[in-house]
Design goal:
The chain has about 525 residues and is of the alpha/beta class. It contains 17 helices and 15 strands. The protein binds guanosine-5'-monophosphate and manganese (II) ion.
Amino acid sequence: MKVAIEGCAHGELEKIYDSIQFLENKENTKIDLLICCGDFQSTRNIADLRCMACPIKYQSICTFYKYYSGEKIAPILTIFIGGNHEASNYLQELPYGGWVAPNIYYLGYAGVINVGGIRIGGISGIYKGHDFLRGHFEHSPYTEETKRSVYHIRNLEVYRLKQLSGKIDVFLSHDWPRGVYHYGNVDELLKFKPYFRDDIFENKLGSKPCEDLLHHLQPSYWFAAHLHCKFAALVPHQIDKTDDEGNTIRKNTKFLALDKCLPKRKFLQIVDIPCEQDATKKYDLSYDLEWLTILQLTNHLLNIKSQYQYMPDANTSSKERSNFTPTNEEKQTILEKFSKNLIIPLNFQQTAEPYNPNSSTDSNHRIQMPNAQTNKQTEEFCAKLGIDDPLHLVLLNNSNNDNNLTDNSSLPNYLTPERKTNQSYNDNESSLIFTPSSVERNSIKRLSLPAPKDDSVSIDKNDESESKNSNEISSIDQEIDNSKGNSFNQKSNDCNPSDLNPSPQPTKKFKRRNASLYENS
Ligand code: 5GP
Ligand code: MN
């Protein structure tokens, strides 16, 4: 399968599709799938733009709305994860993934899907230690703090991903796994990005949870973006297998990060990924049975409070289940719930008015962030699987506590039986997980988090000339070959045993006193 990988899209969907078409014509080939690694900016209208964390001067509607309104049809099946510049109100409607426009699929806070036999997983957002242990408490209209914290990754999603057991072909993250620069040409990287030197030297560039996931999941490919440069690496994993002749098999992850969509920048790469399906057939997206089962088995861990919550840990918890890698029986139960049909339904529906380029722009500055709303795609998915929509719970909580925040009639009826028996959202005692007490609600309102240090770096859009010609078709192996040697304080193909020992399942519980480990210094 010919897959086009894009770094940060920054709303330039039209340019990306044009670039792909240019490559297709030039190379006389056909691209089957486009994968975007965050900062996608699926803004449907001006109100969505207000929900995107970025300086007002960069709040440009760009071209996604054309594919949302139906003015244009995405010419290639497109999959994306979220980054740190998103229409967060829209993405929050689809916490478990869904169609943001026809042919454009968002993976959710975290997700795993199958395309033509290729298993693709991903995690949205960027890592900030101070929000990692919180629940999904944010909603539109956002404060300046929640507009940013909403895209910070949470331990629940990392924990769920760590329960996966089968082979992962492709994994996606917006920020890089920490330490991945040790396995490529770091000198070259520092020539292009000299100001990474200190962070690399102190091994704090990138995401610690993604580093854990990389060594734990050991996917064949890992694609990332965010740092606005192209960088390839080959990450060796511990030798734990032998073939029939007794030779050891070394498993590697081919890592590739790409730049943002700007002229003369390396933002696009075509990768040919071996797949089972006949290339002449249309590719369908399918749910991943193991992932669905993990979502269902861990639904009780869903937290909508801003308070820290720890995941179950075999070493400390007594009788509580802490390993959620599903058994075959558990997977069968879920398969039955889906009537043995895992094809993702094409159930896109508009949930907000698309931007109208012909309308007067005079009043745009008066457009505010909209109230949060739930999405039918998520409602259907949750009802089928028997899990809860975090945004639905947040809205119920608000409507019970603070009636003027949302219109109760727009809420879906579905709630898992466990949550239904717990409808008393004002009762402090009734639920530990999703019922903030009035005291805590006040503390949520008062909560003043430190401003993120580096995730509001401005988007450089000075150079707006033709974006074509800046990318070539070269193989990822070629990229990795080019990047070998000259690595920083470690040979590029050397394997650091301490880095490569995957953490045993289940994951370690983060003790409160250890939370400081996850604070960015
Ligand atoms: P964004 O487009 O997400 O606002 O910004 C990404 C920019 O922030 C990139 O240019 C990248 O170089 C910079 N950046 C992001 N994270 C880090 C980090 O941890 N250290 C350094 N030095 N720069 C970062
Ligand atoms: Mn970014």
